[in-house]
Design a protein that fits this description.
254 residues
Length: 254
């Protein structure tokens, strides 16, 4: 806790929202991708939707990082690079890499809810690092938590990006339809891209040693674990030859 009322209440709000999201996703499938259905109000072009939903995490983080006092220490700059290496890619490159049908659309409600969270998340993590954290000085460079966090972040980043690329390669000849993915983390789980995302942000939270980072890990898990379970079930029901020894998201566990 920082003593700043807005920051502290938003942080508590994210933990509460994570619980609400996880409970809701047990009963409702988020209506995008293979679980898309009508009845969710107005829709928006899918690529534009991704840009609008994810870019607040990149831009709001950058703004609050820059206006804070600790924006030139090596540690804070490394954390900035880690954050932006994921979010610049996710906001401005990934939306133009995915294979979508021409004219594909997603509900505005999904984009609004995701974008609102991304803005809050960018504020919490950007301002924590450059305004509220007192430990992110040059001494932190030699702390094992910083080194371990960076290693975990890099592993998660690679797993996430490579797994997403394997999915894109399944649509080399067509912009729609689903096939069974193989290779890398798909040997063990149906959604290694989600596992990579969770490891990425666990590494970031460890490197920054912050509750804001932990709130992001919990929120990510609250969204991705239920969806991974749903997608795993969908794979098993859709493909009779789906590998039976694969788990949903955590190898050998779930
Ligand atoms: N931090 C968070 O809370 C959070 C939340 C959501 C997503 N994400 C990240 O955002 C990225 C995308 O998430 P997502 O939920 O869209 O992932 P996804 O369901 O795995 O889909 C990723 C892309 O691959 C396509 N695809 C999926 N399975 C396929 C298959 N078997 N054959 C061919 N194409 C396939 C999808 O097409 P369709 O769209 O047509 O299904 C989509 O374009 C992931 O890296 C994820 O970790 C993060």
């Amino acid at each position: 806790m920082t003593g700043n009322t807005v920051f502290d209440y938003l942080l508590i709000g994210v933990f509460v929202a994570a619980v609400v999201s996880a409970l809701s996703l047990i009963f409702i499938d988020a209506p995008y991708g293979r679980h898309k259905k009508g009845g969710w109000g107005p829709t928006i072009n899918t690529r534009l939707g991704w840009v609008l939903m994810e870019s607040p995490a990149s831009l709001v983080f950058l703004y609050f990082f820059v206006v804070g006092d600790n924006n030139t220490s090596i540690v804070s700059l490394i954390l900035l690079v880690m954050w932006q290496s994921h979010y610049f890619h996710r906001s401005f490159i990934y939306p133009f890499q995915i294979k979508v049908k021409p004219g594909d659309r997603v509900p505005v409600m999904v984009i609004f809810m995701g974008g609102s969270y991304c803005a809050i998340n960018g504020f919490l993590n950007g301002s924590y690092i450059s305004t509220y954290a007192e430990h992110l000085d040059d001494q932190w460079l030699t702390d094992p938590r910083f080194a371990l966090g960076i290693i975990l972040f890099c592993f998660g980043y690679y797993l996430n990006k490579k797994s997403d690329q394997i999915l894109r390669d399944l649509r080399k000849d067509s912009t729609e339809g689903y096939k069974i993915p193989y290779g890398l983390g798909y040997k063990y789980v149906s959604m290694p891209n989600y596992l990579g995302e969770i490891l990425t942000w666990t590494g970031f939270a460890l490197a920054a040693w912050s509750l804001a980072g932990v709130s992001f890990v919990i929120f990510t898990m609250a969204n991705l674990v239920p969806r991974a379970i749903t997608n795993h079930k969908w794979y098993l029901e859709t493909f009779s030859d789906y590998p039976k020894d694969r788990k949903a998201i955590f190898p050998k566990i779930l």
